[in-house]
Design brief:
Helix 3 packs antiparallel against helix 5. The protein has helices at 3-33, 40-75, 80-104, 108-114, 117-140, and strands spanning 76-78, 146-149, 156-158. It has a three-stranded antiparallel beta sheet. It is elongated and about 55 Å long. It has 159 residues and is mainly α.
Length: 159
């Protein structure tokens, strides 16, 4: 295994771990914390560590996502559907990062958003669900819309 393959594997793992933290944490907040009747002071104490985790997950997802896409873009001919799904994931992902940051913040805007926290967490969960479903489709059906580029670039073969 060369260094390029090792970096590709590590990047994939980092991306998956970032998704686990963001998706799992968001669904936990929405479907467990909100229903548990936890007092506001305790929920406030949870916001700072959760905000740090959201920021770290967002950074990991952006960096690893760009790297993973660059690997695909260089090594494969990508069909429009693939690029469209990547764009959908990026736009929804940035929205969910922003929304999560607002919900964990201390500003007046954050407090206004938290007045409808259940609604905004539903939106975040829906966006994350769409991202995960799109990613699953992209991984499962990639042979039909990606073609591996041979090293001599004179021929293209199916993946």
């Amino acid at each position: 295994m060369d260094i390029g393959e090792l970096l590709a594997i590590l990047s994939r793992w980092v991306h998956i771990l970032g998704v686990i933290v963001l998706v799992g944490g968001t669904f936990f907040l929405r479907f467990v914390v909100l229903h548990a009747g936890i007092p506001e002071e305790n929920r406030q104490a949870m916001r700072k560590p959760w905000g740090i985790m959201v920021g770290a997950a967002a950074l990991l997802l952006i960096v690893s996502g760009l790297y993973n896409f660059a690997l695909k873009a260089v090594g494969f001919e990508l069909a429009g559907i693939y690029n469209g799904l990547v764009l959908l994931k990026v736009v929804l992902g940035l929205f969910v990062f922003w929304l999560s940051a607002v919900l964990t913040g201390r500003s007046d805007r954050a407090q206004r958003f938290r007045q409808r926290e259940k609604f905004w967490l539903n939106i975040a969960c829906g966006g994350l669900l769409v991202i995960v479903l799109a990613a699953g489709f992209m991984k499962m059906d990639s042979a039909s819309y990606t073609k591996k580029v041979k090293s001599d670039k004179s021929q293209v073969e199916a993946k």
